[in-house]
Amino acid sequence: MTAIFDSFSLNKSLVSASESESVNEPGTLGISASSPSSSAPPTISPSTQRRLWQLNYQEAAIYLQEGENNDKFETHPSSQSSLPGYLITHNSWMYLLDLCAAILLMSLALLEDPAVSILHSPVWVHTSLELLAFAIIVMELAFRMKWLGPKVFFSHVRSIIKFVLLVVMIIEACVVMVRQMSHFRVTRALRPMFLLDCYYCRGVRRFVRQIIQSLPPILEMLSLLLFFMLLFSLLGFYLFGHLQDGFFNTIQLSYVSLFILLTTANFPDVMMPAYSTSRWSAIFFICYICIELYVFMNLFLAVVYDAFSKQEKNKLKKLLIHKRRACQFAFKLLVSKENPSLLSLRHFSGLMKYLMPNKSRRDVYLTFKAMNKSKTGYLSLGEFHAVYEMAHLTWKCPNFSSRIFCVIIVQSIAKHPTLKPGSSIFYFFFSDVVIFANFLWILADTISISVLTLFLRSFIQASFSVYSLEVCLKIVGLSPLGYFRSGWNIFDFLVTTGAFIGLMLQLVNHTLYFVVLLRPLRMLRLFKLRRSFRDIFGTLLIVISRMVSLAIAMVLLYYSFAIIGMEVFSKYDLRNCCVNTSVEDFYKFSPTADLGGHYYLNNFGDLISSTVTLFELTVVNNWHIIMEGFVQVSTEWSRIYFMVFYLIIMIVMNVVIAFVLEAFLFRIQYRQKMHVENMEGECKKYLYLDCRKGRSNPYW
Questions:
Q1: What span, in angstroms and rounded, lies between the C-alpha atoms of 21 and 340?
Q2: Which of 50, 522, 622, 647 is deepest in the core (most CB within 10 A)?
Q3: Where in this protein does the record put region Disordered (predicted)?
Q4: Any idea where the domains of the chain sit in the sequence?
């Protein structure tokens, strides 16, 4: 540790010597500080030189942030006058305000008509909150326009969309405030656009953009599927139109029946009337299901996977190139005129002061050393390209002097190759046998197969002691920081803690004995013993961050369709709505008797009810019954809403499958190509060996 700060003292002493270094080329922020010309003058005062370097450090940090956030370089601050707007727009407090305004705007649907009964409020209340949210968004847009300038601002598609929506929605809110009455406001369905534009939802925004960019081949395949559906509907109309079954009496009914049949929700009901008149009619339905469901739907999945994976690879390539360009722009601003091809530690530290201001001087130095593979004391452009990966590393210097003698002994025993927890096959075998036996005994006790209650309780307590001993040995042997770096260790710790709470509650005769059943969840560790199970869990870990973005996108999609559904269908009451129809029994209602169906509860009376209804439509089972209910109380055109929702959900669900397939294939192919059995262990081993090979100082 002393050597680190000695080296910093040395570098600090070199700062005065390096003050004579002149800026290689001033950035857009430094041009006005030096001269109107594009380069620094031959003689510059030391104070001006220091200011030029500080402006270059700040601008280089901005370039690197633009590379990481995938922002276009056309939006880079063009002068010092645009810098305050940029800094305010990219301030964490402004990010938080923008996010809160977008969430507030979307949550107003709970208060606006049709509102949730317990949250119903006067018009002026939710309209005032809406205008407050708009005021925050307008403030953010004003700072953005100050930073970009009107020309660049209105050349950005997302900014134009946000501006137009803001103007329209503010006018609508003012009209509602003046009239003190809500009107038909389907534009509320576009409120998620403001949340998508937030900084914290940039992952969701990229995901949605990627889906939109993948749409052309997907829509072509979807058109082919619907075209064949139209051909079969025409054939069905001519073959079975004479039957009075309500399925094929018109071309429209024929098409709707076959659309529902694509989801298998009405099979075999749609076939049975025709099948009762002629057994040969089954050929029509079998051919339709085989072609549409088993051929075209699987081809549809293949097209979605191919289009999405291509977009994913193109996106990663473009993002890598974008980051490289950002590094090149930043590097030019950080090197001196005397040494235009190498970056010194001093200027790297100046960059980090703006890029990651919370990073300590020691961490900055170690990051520089980790990037400096050539060990020359200067970074080349190729080494500087690793700044995105290395800048986020954290460093820890072990404090050996604070360790107790007994802890060192226990740790040395625990780190023995044959005794170290988590590295010995005998340890794994013993621990997993205890977990499996504990699960069987608890299961036997739960279903009252065994009467040896006292023995069971003693065995459960003994197994818990083994679990606790395992956790303690791992924490001592690996250190707390090393222990909690593993997801499986965190899982073990949480389950063991829950089991301890369950035992304590059991001792005081508490009824929460089911908490003890958390311990058998540790059986999930048994899946690590097989490669296929490790691949499954590894794939889940890879896609979990993308799944979060997907889940948020699904919530936003639900919100938009829920708003449209409330505006169109909230006025309809589905109780006893379908008299003398095939779905009559599902909507029967009587205040004095329970008649069964309860499908009248699937309505769009408020945001919560609408979300539940849309989720039932997503599950597909009997979704056509919900659609038929609204068709009976409204018009045939209402089918468009439900069919469009199903098609969009079908595309999204196929994207989910494409996610999982891509991640699983990547993991398998990487393991085969790199000849790696345990990817997590190999990554840790590689980082450890890399640090060992790069040790050029005794404190490395």
A1: 11
A2: 522
A3: 21-46
A4: 80-213, 215-315, 402-529, 539-682
- Weakest-pLDDT range from 246-260, 355-369, 678-692: 678-692
The angle, 0 to 180 degrees and rounded to 10, between the axes of the packed helices 2-18 and 345-355 is 100
Report pLDDT for 203. 85
Are the C-beta atoms of 115 and 606 separated by less than 8 Å? yes
Please provide the DSSP assignment of 194-243 as one string: HHHTSGGGHHHHHHHHHHHHTHHHHHHHHHHHHHHHHHHHHHHHHHHTTS
Polymer length in residues for the chain: 700
Q: What is the mean pLDDT of the chain?
A: 77
Residue keyed to tokens 């068709």? 631
Burial class of residue 16, CB neighbours in 10 A (0-12, 13-18, 19+): exposed
Given this chain, do its domains 215-315 and 539-682 carry the same CATH topology?
yes
What is residue 447's predicted lDDT score, i.e. its pLDDT? 52
Sign of CA dihedral 594, 600, 602, 604: negative
- Please say whether the structural domain 215-315 has been given the CATH code 3.40.50.2300: no
In this structure, are residues 175 and 183 in contact, taking their beta carbons and an 8 Å threshold? yes
Q: Distance (Å, rounded) from C-alpha 261 to C-alpha 294?
A: 12
Residue 366: how many other CB atoms lie within 10 Å: 22
Residues whose CB falls within 8 Å of the CB of residue 256, separated by 6 or more in sequence, listed in order:
639
Report the first-to-last Cα separation within the chain, whole angstroms. 9
- How far apart CA 588 and CA 195 sit, in angstroms, is 41
Task: Say if CB 301 and CB 315 are below 8 A apart.
Answer: no
CATH code at 402-529: 1.20.120.350
| CB neighbour list of residue 284: distance below 8 Å, 6 or more residues apart | 232, 235, 236, 239, 274
pLDDT higher than threshold 80 for residue 41: no
SS (H, E, C) 45-63: CHHHHHHHHHHHHHHHHHH
What letter would DSSP give residue 585? G
Q: Tokens standing for 223? A: 């058109």
Ramachandran angles phi, psi of 615, nearest 5°: -65, -40
Position 389 pLDDT exceeds 50: yes
- CATH architecture of the domain 539-682 equals Orthogonal Bundle (1.10)
What confidence score (pLDDT) does residue 138 get? Answer: 93
Token output for 221:
């395949």
What is the tens place of the pLDDT at every residue in 628-647? Answer: 889 888 888 999 999 999 99
DSSP state of 513: G
Both tokens assigned to 650: 């079908």
Q: Of 623, 573, 579, give the one whose Cα is nearest residue 600.
A: 573
DSSP 8-state class, residue 526: G
Structure tokens at 504: 């304590």
SS3 assignment for 90-145: CCHHHHHHHHHHHHHHHHHHHCCCCCCHHHCCCHHHHHHHHHHHHHHHHHHHHHHH
